[in-house]
Amino acid sequence: MPKILWMSPFSLHDSSSGAALNCRYMLSSLVSRGFEVWACSSFIFDAQQAAAQAFGDIKELFKDNDSEIHSFDEQGIHYLYTRVSSCQETDMTLSECQLFYHTFIKALKDFKPDVVMGYGTAPVVMSCFAAAKQQGISTAYMLSNGSYSTYLFPNIDLIITDSYAVSKLYAERDEINTVPVGAFFNIQNITAPEHQKRFVTFINPSDYKGVAIFAKLAKLCQERMPEAKFLTVNTHQRFNEVVNKLHIKGDLNNHPYQQNDFPNVFMVDQQVDMRSIYAISAVILVPSLWFEAWGRVASEAVFNNIPVIASNSGGLAEAIGGGGVLIDTPEHCQEDFYSLPTDEEIEPWFNALKVLLAENFDQELETARTRLSQDRAINRLISALNPLINKSQHQAPDLSELCDQINALQDDDLKDNGL
Q1: 385: burial class by Cβ within 10 Å (0-12, 13-18, 19+)?
Q2: Which residues of 221-257 are buried (b: 16+ CB within 10 A; e: fewer)?
Q3: Cα 131 from chain centroid?
Q4: Interval 118-142: pLDDT, tens
């Protein structure tokens, strides 16, 4: 049975992080194929709210427990979560980093993995990868964004990405070879049993996610499609707080919108279970203005038979798999996330929305779901990992165990053996 040890201070239970969700479901997929998986992690989250949703009051976990480690088993994975005082990675203290490192080293010794997988660029992460390589264990890095152009990936044997778009970006820009395998989902946990097509939904109305395009479209629909109702799922930013920062193209001081200008936009907070959102969505908008490695919400919409209107950015084309419409975003919006598109530039978004709300897109969505097959993704992943697993399983004996045995000998034993 192949053994995988996951390593990253970032929590795999962070519902606000697409990378964390992808990796957790990836590990669950490996378990379903007969792999044994441990995960060395910590309580580092992208958002404090996500930490509370996953574990409640984290301090209560350790209140009556002298251990610095919270261990538990879930869906076949053995988790080791180390204690931290803050959910922010930048707030990790030296002692907390040392605790994480020593927990990882002990897991190496106890679990004896074939491959160490993980992500993160902090020194403690690099130290863990280096320790694994020093013991002759193969390493794999999960790369889920396009912003690591200055990172050299030390002590890494294999870099895995979700999309071909990310793989192409690193190959052309940084001359770094990666292996795209696709994205991973728990289909049962994201598909709603029933649907009422009521809203045009935008998840995470942040500046870089395209809130300028969403706001302009929602405002236009007040005049030309008043029956359309919009919904935002506020995660990292709230729509009513960011909308007044938007400005007219070329005029930084001209802010035309206020939070009360959008009676057709409804808001909800971040959801633990997104099925309730997909159950009431007719179209999902993903107007991202930055490079999207994948775009999980786009794929989740497809699995719910909901068409998507997305920007033609990074891996979004792969994420929707033909289950929607791709539109180029204005260059000035990409350069300044708060710059509103012009009336002419928003027209393709309005036309696409009008079509998807009126026409049946079921056939295209069915084809898209085939392209997003989870069997295909896990097969590609295992094919990429097999050379590393074979290398680890056929390597020379673990020298660290030999050193432990020698160190345990008494001086007389060493003399008797000529040492």
Answers
A1: buried
A2: beeebeebbbbbbbbbbebbebbeebbeeeeeeeeeb
A3: 25
A4: 999 999 999 999 999 999 999 999 9
Q: What is the DSSP string of 187-220?
A: HHHH--SS----EEEEES--TTTTHHHHHHHHHH
Contact status, residue 178 vs residue 143, Cβ threshold 8 Å: yes
The whole-angstrom separation of Cα 354 and Cα 357 is 5
* Structure confidence at residue 414 (pLDDT): 43
Confirm if 77 and 37 have CB atoms less than 8 A apart.
yes
State pLDDT tens for residues 248-295: 999 999 999 998 999 999 999 988 889 999 999 999 999 999 999 999
Nearest partner of 19 among 136, 163, 129, 190, judged by Cα: 163
Please state whether 92 falls in left (phi above 0), alpha (psi between -120 and 50) or beta.
beta
Residue at 157: amino acid letter: D
Q: Per-residue pLDDT tens for 159-203?
A: 999 999 999 999 999 999 999 999 999 999 999 999 999 999 999
Closest CA to 326 of 336, 338, 318: 318
* CA-wise closest residue to 274 among 50, 88, 55, 75: 50
Residue 201 backbone dihedrals phi, psi, to 5 degrees: -105, 135
